[in-house]
Please model this.
Amino acid sequence: MLQINNTTELKEFFHYSDNRVPLICAHRGGARAGYPENAIATFEHTLTRMHAFFEVDPRLTKDGEIVAFHDETLDRTTNGTGKLTDYTWDEVKQLKLRDEKGNITPYGIPKLEDVLQWAKGKTILILDKKNVPYSRLLKLIEANHAEACVLVSAYHLKEAQYYYKRNPNIIFEAMIKDKKTMKAYEEAGIPWENIIAFTGQPLDASLNARLHKKGVMCMASTMKFQDKEKGRASRIAGYKDIVTNGGIDILLSNEPADLSMALQSLLPESSSKVKFFKKEPI
Model:
């Protein structure tokens, strides 16, 4: 588990240092057989196996409830059909989620509010951008006092500016894939302590090094790259390489178990971040 109690601790946890611990972000929770994506049970299952945090997807129902759900339609991951926005929350909560094999599970689509409350003192959630207006998402975060367990995805600077102007405690997973964008963030006046940088792949080690000098951790997705390698050994080698040679600190993956195995050998002998990692059961 990741035990972080306030935004000061969250900023400290994500501040880059030479003794930082490489971090796992499990895409949509780390879905596996019997454990569907964007389900609290799946998040809990992943946390019993490793320290991790999660990327989740906020979407609106027909009557404006915010839920954790990726697709526009229900067909792939539930026993329902059609668009999520054609169903009210009372209808949505009757549905059951399917796992990656298409098997129906006992788990339902959760309200994002319930996910936020569950995450406190356990982990961190990256809230991706779907169809929820900025104002609604910010209101939900604030109503649940969830600033210390949330990163908001900012695909463009204007999104980060919107949230920061209204709540300077919001921390961002900001898309910073080149030096021009990095400069724009500097000029915008959003403190670097409020940012982790999604620099992505192909890797730009020089950009990552510049961000590290600002105390910013760098993140990349392995889903279209290392996750696709045939064989566990190849995947593990790929994960290690982008951390040791590419300057990546946070890896967004569909294969968190293999990633966890890879990162074990890259843990520093000592780290100021250790105090945030707890072994208590979920």
